[in-house]
Amino acid sequence: MDRVKSNFSIKNLENLSGIKAHTLRIWEKRYNLLEPERTDTNIRRYSLESLKKLLNVTLLYNHGFKISKIASLDLDEIPKLVRSIALKSNSEQVSINAFKLSMINFDYELFDTNYEEILQHNDFEYVFLQIFMPLMRELGILWQTGAISPSHEHFLTNLIKQKLHLQTEYLQRNKNLNSESPTFVLFLPENEIHELGILYLNYLILSKGHRTIFLGQSLQISSLETLYSYDTKFNFVSYITVEPNKEDIMFYLKDFYKHILDQQNSKLLIFGPQQIAIDTDNLPPQIELYRSVESFVIKYFPEKVFV
User: Fold this and answer.
1) Per-residue pLDDT averaged across 253-265, rounded?
2) What is the distance between the alpha carbons of residues 269 and 238, in angstroms, rounded to a whole number?
3) Which residues of the chain form CATH 1.10.1660.10?
4) Is the pLDDT of residue 145 over 70?
5) Cβ atoms 73, 81 nearer than 8 A
6) 144, pLDDT greater than 90
């Protein structure tokens, strides 16, 4: 079973909070903000409670509170003040820190409260692109450096997926979706399981009033041929994070073209970091690459773009 990380180095704290280790040592010495244990070799180790406190302190510090003022607060005053500020602030980083706090403590109630407050003042696209996506990028780095455990990342990722599913279900009830333009078919290639991006694209396309068929993770090319019994024209959409890998991606695209696009009036739209390995000079015109959601929206839904 995956263990929850409960012991942190000062470097872990630096990565999670954004406060340099040198500054943390000063705060520790001058203000007694943190009380680390020491290993036999005199190396600082911090508890989960210390990390929670530091994230609270960081949120207040980044919101303009002087460190001397924070240090003078009673221990139970800090989280109350943090909750109040996090729920009222429009700062993306304040919101991200609040979600980090919910992750560290596995506190889905704090996650939901923070999310609902942000959603009162912003639409879901803003929440996902400006808060959830930067948050997930930070978590990827934190996981790789050992600052958090897979349990933390999975907890937060699945809560974000829940919100996406709820928003998507609401949009699918729309009976006035555009039936004249091609249906968008969203899928991930075989062995690709990172579905957050494709889930968001499904939500986005529905929000623009277009029909989608969402097929999810790890789908073989041959499985897509069945769709032509339903219609003859599709916009296939995929988000490639890991698979196919850099060595195989051009072979994959040639195979996709041969079996799905050749002699058909359909397209393949590709998103995701792995597209950097694609040889654009040898790409059929029916395969399009998108580095950003904005460029995709501008091309396919220009009437929905507002300044």
Assistant:
1) 93
2) 6
3) 7-170
4) no
5) yes
6) no
Tokens of 45: 């180790």
Q: Where in the chain are all domains bearing CATH 3.40.50.280?
A: 174-304
pLDDT tens-digit readout, 204-233: 999 998 999 999 999 999 999 999 988 889
What pLDDT shows up at residue 10?
Answer: 86
Q: For position 306, what pLDDT does the model report?
A: 43
Which pLDDT band, with edges at 50, 70 and 90, does 141 fall under? low
Considering only the top CATH level, what class is 7-170? mainly alpha
Distance CA 58, CA 53 (A): 9
CA–CA distance, 269 with 301 (Å, rounded to integer)? 14
CA distance 79 to 247: 49
CATH fourth-level superfamily of 174-304: Cobalamin-binding domain (3.40.50.280)
Asked whether residue 102 carries a pLDDT value surpassing 70, the answer given is yes
Amino acid at 147: A
Contacts for 126-132: CB closer than 8 Å, 24+ residues apart: 127/163, 128/160, 128/164, 128/200, 128/203, 129/293, 130/92, 131/92, 131/95, 131/96, 131/99, 132/160
Residue 125 CB-density burial (10 A; 0-12 exposed, 13-18 middle, 19+ buried): middle
Give the residue carrying structure tokens 């809560």. 159
